[in-house]
Amino acid sequence: MLRTFHKGGIHPPESKLSAHKPIQVLPVPGTVAILLSQHMGAPAKVIVNKGDEVKTGQIIARGEGFLSGNIHSSVSGKVSRIEEVQDVSGYRRQAVFIDVAGDEWEDGINLDTNLDKEIRYDGPEILKRITEAGIVGMGGATFPTHVKLTVPRGKKAECLVINGVECEPYLTSDHALMLEKGEEIMVGIQLLKKALQVNKAYIGIENNKPDAIEKMRDLASALDGIEVFALQVKYPQGGEKQLIKAITGREVPSGGLPVDVGVVAFNVGTVFAVYEAVQKNKPLIDRIVTVTGKAVKNPSNFIARIGTSISDLIEAAGGMPENAGKVISGGPMMGKALSGTNIPVVKGTSGILILAEEESTRLKTQPCIRCAKCVTVCPMGLEPYLLMTLSERSLFDRLETEHVMDCIECGSCSYTCPASRPLLDFIRLGKSNVGKIIRTRKK
Amino acid sequence: MSRLLTVSPSPHIASDQSVEKLMQGVVISLIPAFLVTLYVFGLGALIITTISVITCVLAELTIQKYMMKTEVRIHDGSAIVTGLLLAFNLPSNLPWWMVVLGAVFAIGIGKMTYGGLGNNPFNPALVGRVFLLISFPVQMTSWPLPVESRMQYLDAATGATPLGILKEAVRNGESLPDVMNQIPDHMQLFLGQMGGSLGEISALALVLGFFWLLYKRILTWHIPVFTVATVFVFTGILWLANPDKNATPLFHILTGGLMLGAIYMATDLVTSPMTKTGMIIYAAGIGIITVVIRVFGAYPEGVSFAILIMNAFVPLINKYIKPKRFGEEVKHG
User: Fold this and answer.
1) Helix axes of A123-132 and A268-280: crossing angle, nearest 10 degrees
2) A333 in contact with B at a CB cutoff of 8 Å?
3) What is the DSSP-derived secondary structure letter of residue A204?
4) CB < 8 Å to B1, chain A
5) How far away is chain A from the Cα of B118, in angstroms, using its nearest Cα?
6) How far apart are CA A420 and CA A426, in angstroms?
């Protein structure tokens, strides 16, 4: 019996159109726009000026806030302007625009692709390199990796959980990465184990990727303390809390962090970035992006420089389909719909999904028939129908006592509702109001 | 670029479930029971089902269009399901105008007064049935003989239901084993060879429908299984205590409206609890009240009352029985 999490969950069609497509290197674009907010916390502080010449891999902004990370130039060329650009959330945020000239890399970055297995640094040095490289969680949450690696006082990390689940339909970037860079990921895991001083690492991969499971198992068998778990296919298994539950049986407490149960979790993409940062001294300046959708001519996995326009990626996958109705950054369950494609790729961009017009509109909302499907599928054990009603009526006190803040916004409730009710929309609204109330109370 | 893109919050895909499909699934699951009732009660079954369904749909249409002046939503199929289930809870020789009255009451009072689908606290079909039972106690408890009178409607020869025979016998102080000889054996009860309401007679057909509903994920197993299990255990205890006065648990679960009630009436999505634990409490309540009415009450059968009583407790159950939250307590695996 394969492991999985036990509360709730759904089985959306997998639609992994770009599975088994090799990772293609996207040519360096003519200009890039590198956002200063590519992590959870405050924007990084820019340290270059208009007109400056920069090299690929050169630091251009420092993450000074608690949940910030450094930002590096992903290309070589000249800073043409520093101004606002629309990001995937639709907000306008500061970005550094660079006109590309050649591809000259910063000194000290090792550009060869040979596997470097030698672990030559101690924990603090590994952490320092990761911090410098500006690595953030690449599954989409963009939580800075160096913060996760700094275990709070009084807590103890006991094991690492590596997320190769990729439970979002359509997306295949982690799958492609495991197939092509499995060796590097194993080195990355060893580096993280050393940085955290833990002996055990568990890799979770859903059973719809048997080739990746086999490959990772093969590689792990030669190493100490790395175990691969094939997991039942179920959304949202890639959610950190669900994955930790599936693999270790431990439940991250409500309002708590994984480290409260002795676990630190990383996405395989993050682990690969750690490998490159520590072994090759390469900062996080590119990432794998799946470009996919039923109407897309060539669904593909690209390795793209940060700051590349999403329209360039779509062009490379065969262009914008005639009947495109929606462009999503991320997967169909948790991704963000974009109002245009002139938006730069950031560290958290795992995929670009294009839905055809007929897939893009929601069905008409019908009255709740109290079928309890939303309660059944909620992986956090909440009651979405109730949260929606409370949110509609602005009953924020009750929302808080009904634990609205536990919601991970996986969308299983809205997905499953036979009456097509916008459950998550209202729950988000409620969360944001309750969040504000909680912050005011703390002040 | 000039193309206009749709922007909406996630999730961007939805399951292919819909209210219409759920209702269709329920209708399909009722086919076996309907075929059995056509075989057993023939003409009467056909007339009553047709009248009930048509009246329910027309009542809903009329109320939505002319009284509530809202969008007409009869296409969701819920009125058809109410009509079918009401018919399944009636004897096959009931005069047509009583059926019409029951159907109008079920939809009008049982459902639309509360605001329509999703807002009614009580199962509309049962509201209709109990209204008829209280208003027309004689007609509602005269049961055409199975199979032999299937070509007649109003003039069908009638007899008692197994539960009625049992109640009568206990009242007269007869010993049970003698009475049991007048009642079809368990196999016949299971297949539906007995007097009763249209849809309640064949446990086999109803269980087939139940499997379909489970397969289509329209229902979970909790309410039907726990209702029947509670009745089984409770009547089992009574039977073990006094086999001369009490019927076997198997007899109790195969007769009367228990199967129909447990599978189709108690599980009404709108009027049953939202959590699994809540469902189990609710189902146990239905089972206990059913047995209490059957064994100690004046009526031979009590499933309808039991369900309506427990319907009233659903808001309370929903308020106090919460699903177990993820991370509610720290668990080290």
Assistant:
1) 100
2) yes
3) E
4) 311, 320, 340-342
5) 4
6) 13
Task: Tell me how long chain A is.
Answer: 443
- For the record, the structure tokens of B112 come out as 């639309």
Q: Quick check: B244 and B175 in contact, CB under 8 A?
A: yes
- How many beta-carbon pairs below 8 A join chains A and B? 178
Q: Are residues B92 and B167 in the same domain?
A: no
B95 in any annotated domain: yes
What is the domain partition of chain A in residue ranges? Answer: 1-20+111-361, 373-442
Residue of B220, B326, B328, B329 to mutate, interface with A, max A Cβ within 10 Å? B326
- A315 touching B (Cβ < 8 Å): no
Provide the residue-wise pLDDT of chain A in tens; the chain has 443 residues.
789 999 999 999 999 999 999 999 999 999 999 999 998 888 999 999 999 999 999 999 999 888 899 999 999 999 999 999 999 988 999 999 999 998 999 999 999 889 999 999 999 999 999 999 999 999 878 899 999 999 988 999 999 999 999 999 999 999 999 999 999 999 999 999 999 999 999 999 999 999 999 999 999 999 999 999 999 999 999 999 999 999 999 999 998 999 999 999 999 999 999 999 999 999 999 999 999 999 999 999 999 999 999 999 999 999 999 999 999 999 999 999 999 999 999 999 999 999 999 999 899 999 999 999 999 999 999 999 999 999 999 999 999 999 999 999 999 999 999 999 999 999 999 999 999 999 999 87
Residue B200 within any structural domain of the chain: yes
Pull the structure tokens for residue A312: 């360039």
Q: Do B330 and A415 touch (CB under 8 A)?
A: no
- The alpha carbon dihedral of B257, B263, B265, B267 has a sign of positive
3-state secondary structure of A9: coil
- Helix (H) or strand (E) segment spanning residue B317: helix B303-320
Of A327, A339, A379, Cβ closest to residue B326: A379
Indicate whether B109 and B185 sit together in one domain. Answer: no
Q: Are residues B244 and B124 in the same domain?
A: no
pTM: 0.91
Chain A residues closer than 8 Å to B24 by CB: none
Q: Cβ neighbours of residue B301 under 8 Å, at least 6 residues apart?
A: B161, B163, B256, B257, B293, B294
Among B91, B108, B139, identify where a domain stops: B139
Measured distance CA(B176)–CA(B36) in Å, rounded: 29
Say yes or no: B69 contacts chain A, CB-CB below 8 A.
no
Report the residue from A254, A381, A417 with minimal CB separation from B323: A381
Q: Fill in the DSSP letter of residue B265.
A: I
Smallest Cβ–Cβ distance between B15 and the set A320, A334, A415 belongs to A415
Instruction: Quote the number of domains for chain B.
Output: 2
Residues B126 and B187 in one domain: no
Reported ipTM: the value is 0.90
Q: How many CB atoms lie within 10 A of CB B14?
A: 19
Cis peptide before B11 (omega within 30 of 0): yes
B21 CA: distance to closest CA in chain A (Å): 8
Asked if residue B199 and residue B69 are part of one domain, the reply reads no
Which residues of B fall within a CB distance of 8 Å from A370? Answer: 118, 269-272, 274
Same domain, B77 and B197: no
Three-state DSSP state, A258: helix
**Superfamily for domain range A1-20+111-361:** NADH-ubiquinone oxidoreductase 51kDa subunit (3.40.50.11540)
Domain residues for the domain of B68 are 19-139
Do B240 and B111 belong together in one domain? no
**Interface mutation vs chain B, best among A248, A261, A370, A425, most B CBs within 10 Å:** A370
**Which residues from A are below 8 Å from B332, CB to CB?**
249-250, 261
Which of B272, B275, B333 comes nearest A250 by C-beta? B333
Task: Return residues 96-155 of A near B (CB < 8 Å).
Answer: none
Would you say residue B168 lies in a domain?
yes
Q: B171 and B311: one domain?
A: yes
